[in-house]
Amino acid sequence: MTPRNLADLVLLAAIWGGSFLFMRMGAPSFGPLPLIELRVGTAALFLLPILFWKGLLPHLKRNAGRLLLLGALNSGLPFVCWAFALLTMSAGMASVLNATTPLFTALVATLWLRDRLTVFQIAGLLVGFFGVILLVWSKGSFSSGAGILAVAASLGATLCYGVGVNLAKKHLAGVDPLVLSGGSMLGSALLLLPAAVWTWPAVTPPAGAWISALLLGVVCSGMAYVLFYRLVDTVGPSKTVAVTYLIPIFGMLWGAVFLGEKVTPGMLGGAAVILLGTALTTGLLAPRKDRRP
């Protein structure tokens, strides 16, 4: 991995870690549905000209139905779940729970695509979900209904990601990654539009909330996906997945710096256990013969 690739990886982690900060700032004013409609709609407007420039717009029509479903599972529904969770949850904690995405991806692949898990991957799933229990326990989230719902929404989001990734693998293999990202954003924008209009806030949100929504769309979705797929093309998916281990660092950092959130020893311990489970599940810590290519 070149210094440029490493810099891109850290930048991507910083951007995606920031997405939890911006949702935490925008969700109370907009509400989950309008905020995410602005996010995916802005991202679609950012990515569509790139698709046009590359001559990829015909691919959207050719894969419209599957991209609509992918948009619901990989963007619309999980983003709404995060925005709902961040009404009551800290940005730092949400970024840590996001690290369970590879665990759900592996679990869904096993149950749906019949992928076989190694002993180390099974151990990783168990360790990772034990880390979630430690994290939740340390925050005392089960002491209130809001805490339980926020954690459930967060895990629902990462489960959606897991289903979405495997859907793309099974039914959209070979489709240009930019088509997947642009099409999924456009699809989720269309799906969420009626509900977003229905729940649009009666009071105009402040400027800070609007800025958060625009940054979510342009930077955390549009630009981030371009950067992500550039990394996949240059260093491969197995190395790009390392971004998973960096996002919680930035999520907790941005929450502490800009929102004054506390980073507790329990959060750090839970994060460490979740990331250990993720490393085992993705093959990073498996014996060489069991590592994924």
Notes on the structure:
- With 293 residues, the protein is mostly helical.
- It has one domain.
- It is built from 13 helices and no strands.
- Helix 2 packs antiparallel against helix 4 (64-85) and helix 4 (64-85) runs antiparallel to helix 8 (145-171).
- The longest helix has 29 residues, at 207-235.
- The model has no long low-confidence stretch (mean pLDDT 89).
> What's the mean pLDDT score?
89
Q: Helicity range of the residues?
A: over 70%
Structural class: mainly alpha
The string of secondary-structure elements, in order, is HHHHHHHHHHHHH
* Estimated share of beta-strand residues: under 5%
Tally of extended strands? 0
- Low-pLDDT residue intervals, each spanning 5 or more residues: none
- Number of contiguous helices: 13
Distance between the termini: 16 Å
Biggest beta sheet summary: none
The gyration radius over C-alpha positions equals 18 Å
Number of domains: 1
Query: Quick one: overall form?
Result: globular
